[in-house]
Design goal:
One of its GO terms (cellular component) is membrane. This protein is an alpha/beta fold and about 280 residues long. The chain has helices spanning about 5-10, 60-70, 115-120, 135-145, 150-165, 170, 185-195, 215-225, 240-245, 265-270, 275-280; strands spanning about 15, 20-35, 35-45, 50-55, 80-85, 90, 120-125, 200-205, 230-235, 250-255, 255-265. It has one domain (about 15-130, about 200-280): P-loop containing nucleotide triphosphate hydrolases (Rossmann fold), CATH 3.40.50. The structure holds adenosine-5'-triphosphate.
Length: about 280
């Protein structure tokens, strides 16, 4: 898929959710891998209790943008971001900055504490990454890091998390078996259960179904639709049908820019930009 710079200068159409509904609000974000700039002035408003999908051709910056939201890139030397990522009244990129016109805070201030940030904004990766421990411990491990709970309370958290991730029925009789003994699709739902067990506000998913068969994908999608009653979800996907099926808002990116951001129903039926129209009709790629 080759776009020259002229073709990519397609303008942008951004129809954000109202300010009071935004849990995260990315404004004018630039991102750099060393000297290589991967994001250019990106805006991403994320509505609370909704699923936001990020789509676009390979290399357009979807995963990079997702990785900025819980600052996981901070663990890698040479990577840095500039701009504003507003979360609970605070600019994550500059916690001391006085932010005007920020969405209302609904949770704890992060105060520059990245460990707290990653507990509030959890992440599930492309390949399932269960810990080499029992199914039960996969979930209990993270909870213990954040809270002191009794065995009975932990049993309840494990059951609730697995139920919400649509996995309980398949594993309830083998909680002491290794997480690695599950199928790929089950492992991915275990990772979702692990992510939500610590009750984050936001769950980030980077192409979580790319390694799954259609049945496992359908189960994961069902789980995500249920989960948005309790959590906000941002998902990167190459699967346009999936984005159209499950998301409330869609952001279409091209060459490091946010070209179109709109409610998904409208965006897929009537793309506002020629670039997104070409992309969803398969004219490119
Ligand atoms: N670790 C890295 N070091 C240097 N450049 C990187 C790194 N990771 C990504 N990039 C570059 O940043 C740009 C955006 O990459 P990114 O992975 O965010 O795109 P993407 O839209 O998620 O792609 P895909 O759909 O193929 O996963 C690309 O030009 C890519 O080559």
């Amino acid at each position: 898929m080759n776009f020259d710079a002229k073709q990519a200068d397609v303008g942008s159409v951004i129809l954000p959710p109202p300010m009071e509904q935004r849990v995260l609000d990315v404004r004018g974000l630039n991102f750099f891998y060393g000297k290589h700039q991967a994001l250019f002035g990106v805006d991403l408003p994320v509505a609370r209790g909704k699923i936001t999908a990020l789509i676009g051709p390979s290399g357009c910056g979807k995963s990079t943008l997702l990785r900025t939201l819980n600052k996981i890139y901070d663990l890698y030397p040479g990577q840095h971001a500039e701009g504003q990522i507003l979360f609970n009244g605070e600019n994550l990129l500059n916690p001391r900055e006085a932010v005007e016109d920020a969405p209302p805070a609904a949770g704890l201030a992060i105060n520059g504490d990245n460990a707290r940030l990653r507990a509030r904004i959890g992440m599930v990766f492309q390949r399932p990454t269960p810990f080499p421990m029992s199914i039960y411990e996969n979930i209990a491990f993270g909870v213990r890091l954040h809270r002191n709970v009794s065995r009975a309370q932990m049993d309840e958290i494990v059951e609730t998390s697995l139920t919400r991730a649509a996995l309980w029925d398949e594993v309830k009789d083998k909680l002491d078996k290794s997480g690695l003994s599950l199928s790929g699709g089950q492992q991915q739902r275990l990772c979702v259960a692990r992510g939500i067990a610590v009750e984050p506000e936001v769950l980030l998913l980077d192409e979580p179904a790319s390694a799954l068969d259609p049945l496992s994908t359908a189960k994961l999608e069902t789980a995500l639709i249920e989960l948005k009653q309790s959590f906000t979800i941002v998902i990167v996907t190459h699967n346009l049908q999936q984005a159209a099926r499950i998301s409330d808002y869609t952001g279409f990116m091209l060459m490091g820019k946010m070209v179109e951001f709109r409610p998904s129903g409208e965006a897929f039926v009537r793309p506002a930009t020629a670039a997104m129209r070409d992309y969803v009709t398969g004219r490119y790629g």
